[in-house]
Amino acid sequence: MSKINFAGIVDYSSLDFPGHVCAVIYLCGCPYRCPWCQNADVALSKSETCKPKEIFEIIENLKENFIIDSVTITGGEPLMQNETYELCQKIKSETNLLLKIDHNGFYPEILQNFLPLLDFVSVDIKAPFNEKYKISTQRNDWKNVVEKVKKTCEILSLWNKKKEARTTAVPTLIDEDEIVEIAKAINKYKFSFYTLNEFRAERTLDEKFQSITPYSYEKMLNLGKIAKQHLDNIDVYVVTSKKGKEKI
Ligand code: SF4
Questions:
Q1: pLDDT grade, residue 218 (50/70/90)?
Q2: pLDDT score recorded for residue 116
Q3: Which pTM value belongs to this model?
């Protein structure tokens, strides 16, 4: 029996897997330290939040859930734990649920192995592919990180299922110039869609980010339109606290 470092499960979400109703599984640990992270206890694998959990218990929980048609595995970074593969295998072999993984782009080779099990991958593009990735991930080896994220994008460009690129529009880090750089950089990877998420200032990993005011709804729409101008045949969505998810 395998255990996985687990923070919890949300039984029902209509937001995390577009077009489907999913359960959301939170797995612990992350190789990044994004200063705006709102799941710091999960990312840092704090013992009060994260506990070993039998994989079969998670599967039983999913089997007893008659509302959902899909599962999203998020974190933290789901691909950081070896046991995530067994969890995904069991979801696919023991249930009929569609399976999505939220990924931060740091494990391209591991992701490649997971793809036969997956129906949808959402990958973070934290910043333009330059040293802004250092601020965003707080990793000194940011060049290495950028290469891994690019490799992840390349792998997904050859995968014919649903794939999303997404960026959190963090004021002070991401503005019009950065959105142009990101959109130009990812255009060739042919994502199914690109999503721009509003920054939220609550419970951030770096407390200084709690004093940053999120962009206005109008600013978010404008950033979405700018992204759209540089993305060929890729749908762009903006997610705001005011109106939820909107297609640009
Ligand atoms: S926001 Fe950053 S630090 Fe937090 S879980 Fe996601 S990738 Fe990890």
A1: very high
A2: 98
A3: 0.96
Angle made by CA atoms 131, 151, 23, in degrees to the nearest 5:
100
Lining residues, ligand 1, CB within 6 Å: 30, 32-34, 37, 39, 43, 75-77, 104
Hey, which of 32, 81, 138 would you mutate to test ligand 1's pocket, going by the most ligand atoms within 8 Å of its Cβ? 32
Instruction: Give yes or no for a contact between 26 and 7, defined as CB atoms under 8 angstroms apart.
Output: yes
Domain coordinates in residue numbering, the chain: 3-247
Angle of CA points 116, 63, 77, to nearest 5°: 50
Tokens of 227: 């992204």
Candidates 3.40.50.620, 3.20.20.70, 3.90.1170.20, 3.90.1010.10; CATH matching 3-247: 3.20.20.70
| DSSP classification of residue 78 | G
Site to substitute for ligand 1 among 39, 136, 173, most atoms within 8 A of C-beta: 39
Nearest residue (by CA) to ligand 1, atom 5, is: 76
3-state class (DSSP) for residue 54: strand
Q: Whose CA is nearest to atom 4 of ligand 1?
A: 37
CA distance 226 to 56: 45
